[in-house]
Specification:
The chain is mostly helical. The chain has a domain of about 35 residues. Helices cover about 55% and strands about 0% of the residues. The protein has three helices and no strands. Helix 2 packs antiparallel against helix 3. It is rod-shaped. It starts with 6 loop residues before the first helix and ends in a 14-residue tail after the last helix.
């Protein structure tokens, strides 16, 4: 699904993982663990917000009873080069 291909994810995917054995005892630094958890939580928050948006659109489409109400469910495409259809 290309909807998740945002600059946030692209940056995250390109970053190299931290090297293992960063401290004298062969484990990760607590700050690295905190950064990892914070990063993971930020990703999950973004994904859950996007999922909630999609679920709202699904509910709208399911409740549509005619073409006009279905059209009202569709998000506006900002910057779309196609003019809206007139039926």
């Amino acid at each position: 699904m290309m909807a998740f291909a945002t600059p946030f994810y692209a940056t995250w995917a390109q970053s190299a993982p931290p090297p293992e054995g960063d401290n004298d005892f062969g484990g990760k630094h607590p700050k690295q663990e905190q950064r990892f958890e914070a990063h993971k939580q930020a990703i999950l928050k973004h994904m859950n917000e996007h999922l909630a948006e999609i679920q709202q659109h699904i509910a709208c489409v399911q409740a549509a009873t005619n073409p006009e109400s279905l059209r009202a469910c569709m998000p506006e495409h900002v910057g779309s080069s196609r003019p809206p259809k007139d039926n």
